Structures are given as C-alpha cells and as structure tokens.
Amino acid sequence: MQRDLKFNICELESSHLRNHEVPDLKLRIKSHIGPALQYACTHWIEHFTASPNQTLLTSTKTFFDGPQLMYWLEVLSILGRLDVAISGLSNLTALDLTQYDGWDPLAPWARDAHRFLLSFYDAIAASAPHLYISALAFAPSKSLTAQRMRPYFPNTIKVPAGDKNWYPCVKSILHPHQIQSLSASHDGLRLIAGYSDGSLCLWDNQTSVRIGELLIGHNEPVTCVVFSSDDSLVASSSCDTTIRVWEAKEYLKTHGTLSGHSSSVNCVAFSPNAAILASGSSDKTIRLWDPKALCSIGEPYVAHTSRVSSLAFSPDGTKLASASWDKTIRIWSVDLTGSKLSGNPLLITGHSDSVTCIAFFPDSSRIASGSVDRIVRIWDAQTGVQVETRAPLMKHSDSISAITFFIRWEIHCV
C-alpha cells in the first residue's frame, strides 16, 4: 500500500467535478487502484487492530509520518469508502498500546486525523481533490494534521487568517426540518431524529450521513424517539396521539402503530430487555405496550394530575419513573413479569414548576430530574428523599429540557 499510493492517483484533471461527475471514474479506478490496493486501503486498520505488534506499529507510524496518510484518504474518497477511515481511525485511537515503541506519538496523530476527517468529511467525500485544496488548506493551523501534512504539499493555498485550533463543535448536520427529538443507539453508531413535520430519519453517527430515506410516520410533530436496548427497534411518539414502532436493524422500516391515548403522546421508553414499551401522554395517563406484538398491556395507569412529560426505566428493570407538569415525579415498581406497574407509586415532590425530564443513575439507586424551575435535583429512588450531593443544586438560566448520564456518571443537562 505504501508503495502504490501516490498523489492524484487517478490522474484527475480538474477539481471542479465531484467524484460522481467524473465520466470515466470507474475506468480510472480499474487502471490505477487495483483489487490488492483497494483491499489494503479498506482493511489495513482492521488487521492492525485485530493483532497489533511492534512491526505493524512501526509501519503504521511511518505511514502517519508521511504523505501516505493523505494519499490513503484520497483513495477512499474515490472509492466512496471514506466511512472506513472514520471507523478505522476511531478504533485505532481506542487502543492502548503503550507497551510498544512509537505508540505515544502515533496516538495523538491518529486522533487529530480522525478529527480532521470528521470536520471535512463532506468536502472530501464529494471530491477527492478537495482533500488538498479545501480540507488541508482550511484545517486549523495548530492542528497536528496541518502541521505535519502541509509541508508535503507546498502548493496548497495559503489561508491568511483562520482557526488555530479545532472548534469544540465536531460537526454540524443540516436537517430537513426542525428537530423535535434526538436519540443515540446504545452502540453509539447511529442517531434517530424526529421532526416537526411528523417524519423520522436515521443518521450514521460517525460519518453524519443519512441512512436510508426520510420516512413520514406521524400526522403531527414527533415528540420523542428512542432505541430499544438491542438497537433493533425504534419507538416514536407524536402530538397525533399515536406511537409508531420501527424496525431499525439496517434501515428504518415501519413495524406498526399503537393507538389508545386520547391526547398528545409526549414520551416513550423501552424496558431494559426491550419487552415493554411505556408511553406518557397529555391525557395524564401512562400505558404499557408489547412493541413486537403491537398490543396494549393492561389498563392505563393514572396518578398524575397534569400531562406526563418524561418516562425512564431503571437500568435493572425494576422501576419506572414518570415526570409531570403537575410538578411531581412518581416511581412505579415493575412486577417480576415486567408486565404490570404497582398500583401505589412513590410520590416525589420538591420542584416548584413542571418537571420536564428524568434519568436514572447507572446503578438504579438515584434519579436526576430537571424542571422549568431551572434546577436539577437528585433523589433516592427507594425513598424519594432528595440527595444533597451537590451544593448548591445545579441551577440553570432557563428551563431544563433534557438530562442524561455518561458512562462515568457525569450528569449532562440541556
């Protein structure tokens, strides 16, 4: 691969055409990028991460230390396989190979190359020449990729002023409509977005490329979207009073519709084993559903005196928490079969305005809640007593609309 890679490998005459507009691109690929080189470019990181050793690491360091890095990205752009670089570099940077000589400088090079690719993915994917004339030219001047690669390409345009370091926002994605709800798959590879026109769409979380077509599922705005624990299903709720269940193994595909609420469905949540789907509505009720059989389970549960705004199952599957505009949180016990809630849920009060969002701690012991009162509160999930773990309580400048946990138990609010 290092022997055959070179600048402008397909001898493209102009940067004015996007890859798919080059009339004889397939012939150029056949002539200049043979099967062996194609295989090497699309699989070398896979082989390296599967069985790293000192010899491979030394070769990889040499690869990143020279212009071959750019030539490799050029080939992947032409082949339409830039996604290979995104996932490959991500997997490479996740390795801990400090026992090998040369890993310490290689790791930050790979991380910066991954950041470079995320930031300029659209331009590079559209046109291989723009890897050099746009992406490399406009990369932040202090980025490792710019500092290491620009000397190999002295004819790259000089940008008189620009960013010196990477901007905190990795990438912006233009969506077709206003986003009402967004959720990530549990494996972190995909995003599901629900829009104001009632449509939904899957997105590749690594490349930011849309997966499949935009699908219309609801007659009114989508209010909530969520993946099942195995990422095989997606549930969406809407102001049109319905819930839609979608198959999501590869592309988004309609599975069925659940009807029963008499007003807007504001939230949905899968149980940890994905056997139960819970929904909360402006009709003040909570319902349980079988998402695969597409049928309701039991009668509606009534405890709140205003709309149900948020639902969350505990990670151990023993509890369901519900939040409401009535300023309260209720914690329901889930029976051993997972098909019924306790008739007398634990009542939690303390917020001075509508509770908008809730999330369980990863160990199921506590709950975090956000409210229109601009405060995040933490509660003991067994007793309902407020847990004063942070002083003062986290107060925001406006209503809190979402709350979630990262792996290290860090609370993130929006």
UniProtKB/TrEMBL annotation:
Cross-referenced PROSITE patterns: WD_REPEATS_1, WD_REPEATS_2, WD_REPEATS_REGION
UniProt cross-references to InterPro entries, sorted A to Z = WD40/YVTN_repeat-like_dom_sf (IPR015943), WD40_PAC1 (IPR020472), WD40_repeat_CS (IPR019775), WD40_repeat_dom_sf (IPR036322), WD40_rpt (IPR001680), WD_LIS1/nudF_dynein_reg (IPR050349)
Annotated WD repeats reside at 175-213, 215-247, 258-290, 301-335, 348-389
Q: Does the keyword Protein transport apply?
A: no
Arranged from A to Z, the UniProt key words for this protein are:
Repeat, WD repeat
Please list which residues make up the signal peptide. Answer: none
Q: What is this protein called?
A: Vegetative incompatibility protein HET-E-1 [Podospora anserina]
Species this chain originates from:
Rhizoctonia solani
